Backbone:
């Protein structure tokens, strides 16, 4: 056999071996893939963790919210009613003064002198009157020995002196009043503001500048507004009693005091379409302060046995409001609902939910209708989650 013939046989055998290897490799790979695909896969069912809350039947208070300003129940700028020099300041700025407490003492010597003078004049006129009465008695006893003219003249003198004594009494009362005005007293109990005069200053009744401002804070008032379309509800609540009014911090998060509505203003502000209201608070703890801005809530009605859910359970969608409920199989169900009122984290649902059902209050962003959920009570952070599957 020639050498070229041998080379051909070697190449042929090598080609046959290579083709056999490739065929075996392809067959083995397809068989492995078929076996892998033939193995069954267990479906993955992952429960979504959510918090739930019960749909409750409860009385629901209906409040009107607004903004208001605290005002002193009474506020006065204390002024002097007489002229003179201030000898003493008897109060401290910011002090709680009581009705009748002395605030300022003005130099009283001129007023005391005027009072003494009036009293002396009265004593003089009383002496003249006594003498005139004696002369009248003598003229009367003389009878026909005294002329009628003398008697009438003496009687007129007695009447004149009697009138002078009465005038002296009035002068004494006026002088006493001026003397009393020299001591300036608090007209009612309240908080004294910043003093506007000092000891040694001359004050007079004609000036507009006062001595100090006093604001009564027990009780205290809050003036706030409400839309005019709410006026019928407010009038009905006021006719039934004194509606509860709550004063809160401006952010609405902290209750400051609770009082009662006392009156509705006698006209509606046509420029804003609102009506002014006044509520009165006992304010024993001085939480409210004149000039303070507050948020207000006025109780106008109470809905009996309303269907109530947490605000967090109410979701907004393109077709309106909805909420997710959890059925006995721990699957989520979508319910379209109608909400009429909402306050303090609770909403009243008129349609779509029934008391006793459970609604999802947190974790809705991962939930769809039919989703298996893991539930925990929204009211307790320590509640343990419970997983239920088919």
Residues:
């Amino acid at each position: 056999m020639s050498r070229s013939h041998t080379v051909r046989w070697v190449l042929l055998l090598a080609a046959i071996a290579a083709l056999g290897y490739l065929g075996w490799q392809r067959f083995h790979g397809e068989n492995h893939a078929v076996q892998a695909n033939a193995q069954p896969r267990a479906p993955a069912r992952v429960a979504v963790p959510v918090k739930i809350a019960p749909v409750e039947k409860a009385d629901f208070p209906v409040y009107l919210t607004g903004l208001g300003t605290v005002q002193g129940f009474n506020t006065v700028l204390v002024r002097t009613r007489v002229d003179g020099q201030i000898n003493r300041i008897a109060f401290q700025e910011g002090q709680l003064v009581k009705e009748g407490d002395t605030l300022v003492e003005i130099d009283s010597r001129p007023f005391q002198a005027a009072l003494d003078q009036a009293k002396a004049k009265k004593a003089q006129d009383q002496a003249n009157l006594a003498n005139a009465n004696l002369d009248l008695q003598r003229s009367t006893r003389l009878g026909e020995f005294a002329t009628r003219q003398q008697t009438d003249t003496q009687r007129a003198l007695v009447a004149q002196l009697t009138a002078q004594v009465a005038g002296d009494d009035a002068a004494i009362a006026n002088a006493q009043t001026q003397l009393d005005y020299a001591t300036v007293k608090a007209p009612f109990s309240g908080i004294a503001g910043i003093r506007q005069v000092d000891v040694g200053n001359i004050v007079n009744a004609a000036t507009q500048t006062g001595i100090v401002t006093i604001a009564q804070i027990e009780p205290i008032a809050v003036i706030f507004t409400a839309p005019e379309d709410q006026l019928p509800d407010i009038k009905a609540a006021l006719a039934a009693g004194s509606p509860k009014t709550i004063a809160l911090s401006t952010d609405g998060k902290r209750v400051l005091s609770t009082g009662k509505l006392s009156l509705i203003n006698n006209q509606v502000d046509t420029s804003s379409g609102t009506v002014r209201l006044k509520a009165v608070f006992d304010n024993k703890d001085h939480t409210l302060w004149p000039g303070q801005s507050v948020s207000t809530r006025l109780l106008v009605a109470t809905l009996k046995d309303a269907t109530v859910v947490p605000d967090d359970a109410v979701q907004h969608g393109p077709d309106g409001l909805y909420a997710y409920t959890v059925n006995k199989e721990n699957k989520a169900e979508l319910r379209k609902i109608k909400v009429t009122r909402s306050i303090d984290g609770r909403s009243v649902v008129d349609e779509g939910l029934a008391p006793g059902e459970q609604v999802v209050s947190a974790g809705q962003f991962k939930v769809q209708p039919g989703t298996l959920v893991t539930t925990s009570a929204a009211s307790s952070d320590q509640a343990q989650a419970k997983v239920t599957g088919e």
User: Anything to note?
Assistant: Helices lie at 3-38, 109-142, 148-181, 231-240. The mean pLDDT is 84.
